[in-house]
Amino acid sequence: MDMDATTAETADDTVIRFTLVVERIVRHLRAVTATAGMSSAAASVLARLRDSGPQRVTDLARSEGVSQPAMTQLADRLVTEGHAVRAPSADDRRAVLIDVTASGLAALEQRHVDRVARLEAVMAELGEDDRAALAAALPALERLVDVAADRT
């Protein structure tokens, strides 16, 4: 096997292993916060509203990759729970926007606190070298997320 094939095989193995690890971490974090009563979909929508401002249901559905009826149902639930509100658009009075409320922001923050606490406890069981390696990898992981976000 030549060097290019070996490098490609190693890169593929790295991507495969990385994907599997990320999927396991996501499943773990979802399990930790599943009992808090907020679905991942709800948290994703609230975070999008927090970060991007009020949006139409159709735009939320497209950005979250779900159908408009599914997003309408989720928005209805978030409004009922007090995590979001509906408001008329300033640009088009016929349009209705969904926006996050203080309650929604507090719920997102609590979800984050719960996840941090859980990972902190797990990471405390790792050796110092593993914790240092994870800390050293953070800048590259942050750049990876930025590149991925630019492609969506």
List the helices and strands and how they pair.
Elements lengths: L2 H32 L5 H13 L2 E2 H8 L3 H13 L3 E5 L7 E5 L1 H22 L4 H23 L2
Antiparallel strand pairs: 1-3, 2-3
Helix pairs in contact: 2-5, 3-4
Brief sketch in words of this structure:
With 152 residues, the chain is mainly alpha-helical. The chain has 6 helices and 3 strands; from the N terminus they run ααβααββαα. Helix 3 (57-64) packs across helix 4 (68-80).
Can you tell me about this structure?
Helix 3 (57-64) packs across helix 4 (68-80). It is built from six helices and three strands. The protein is elongated and about 55 Å long. A hairpin with a 7-residue loop joins strand 2 and strand 3 (96-100). The model has no long low-confidence stretch (mean pLDDT 88). By secondary structure, it is mainly alpha-helical. The protein has a three-stranded antiparallel sheet with strand order 1-3-2.
What descriptive keywords fit this protein?
152 residues; mainly alpha; 3-stranded antiparallel beta sheet; 3 strands
